[in-house]
User: Fold these one by one.
Assistant:
Number 1:
Amino acid sequence: QAQLMESGGGTVQSGGFLKLSCSYSGDRPDCMAWFRQAQGEEREGLSHVSTTGVWRTGYADSVKGRFSISQDDSRNTISLYMSRLQPEDTDMYYCAEIRDARECSSWSQYNVWGQGTQVTVSS
């Protein structure tokens, strides 16, 4: 089972840009994804990528066109590039993985999580 660690969070002004990274150790997962969650609210799936086999990505409507996911096999890392950030993007961001390539787009199936990294967008 992989262990996940996020980095890259911080505070940025409205309209700004941030890059989040998630490194994994252990065997490569089949799928990885980024989520976010505000305190007291449900976790929201943002983007997923198949990390084995055919390259496939997916995005939630709320971030499509603003966020982009990428994979760096040499560093066992996936990244989330976030642009045109708005105050409503302020949340704790998590990466997650599952070991079933058929479920990459199934947000509810992700079952291994990192500890999260805080993103704050000031107006």
Note: The chain has a mean pLDDT of 93.
Number 2:
Amino acid sequence: QVQLVESGGGLVQAGGSLRLSCAASGRTFSRYAMGWFRQAPGKEREFVATITDSGSRTYYADSVKGRFTISRDNAKNTVYLQMNSLKPEDTAVYYCAQGLTPSGTASRYDYWGQGTQVTVSS
């Protein structure tokens, strides 16, 4: 059974930083792409970033490009999202997801974590 467990969320002031982690188990981590999505209250889930199985390529939503960095450690079965220069509009529940290929489309991912809350105060 695949499990994805996010951690690292919290309350931060605008301009601050947070690093989210997502620990995976249940199948060979290094064979799968990983993605981060987020969902704010009253809004649809939106793509944030994705990374290939090897970590050689990354892709970002325009809204976070230059501020967020996705990375992975295949030895630790963990994917990270470093978030810098946070803005109040980044407030959302952040989810990690696992799929065969990197994608900005949520339906392309097979498994999802439970989410971690990120709140950015102004």
Note: The mean pLDDT is 98.
Number 3:
Amino acid sequence: VQLQASGGGLVQAGGSLRLSCAASGSIFSINAMRWFRQAPGKERDLVAVITSGGSTNYADSVKGRFTISRDAAKNTMYLQMNTLKPEDTAVYYCNADLEAFSGSLIHHLYDYWGQGTLVTVSS
């Protein structure tokens, strides 16, 4: 099982980016999916979460600017980031709770991480 994040880059303040996180492998189901971010010298913080039912929740710092969504058919999660600020600069990581096949068994994988994608917002 792999979570592949993409879409990061360099953008000016006020601009937009769309991040994607594609899950691949022997996946049975995906439950909650999350975006975290880690700025240089800081802890990794939760940015947004979306449940399998589509409920969402956001960190106060991104409410009204970021939108999390998912395409269940593609096993992919997105983060639309608008009105970006320099303080949004960070490595963004995707995270999920999912179930995967292993032979005839199903394994629960909680708090499963993908690699990060760097977002840099210039002032």
Note: DSSP finds no helices and ten strands in the chain.
Number 4:
Amino acid sequence: QVQLVESGGGLVQAGGSLRLSCAASGRTFSSYVVGWFRQAPGKEREFAAAINWSGGSTSYTDSVKGRFTISRDNAKNTVYLQMNSLKPEDTAVYYCAARFKRITVPAGEYDYWGQGTQVTVSS
């Protein structure tokens, strides 16, 4: 069992930066793939980025490539999402999620979810 808690959201101007954190409980956290998803009002939840258990493999959706960086510190049971050059279209609730084995994109393939943190980018 893994419990996830996101933090770091807030209001930022376009072009600014935020760093989201996903803190996990559970002794086997280092065994899990962790993904970041986002959901804007009236839209479906979408994949943003994911990282494998070691941090050696990452994946990003095209719209955030070159602007977002996912990383993890297994000693601290925490995964980060550094978001730079933010755009108004990045406004959403951001969720972290965890699953075993390999990185996948569909939200339905992740087993554990946090409660989400709001990110608002003003123009």
Note: The mean pLDDT is 95.
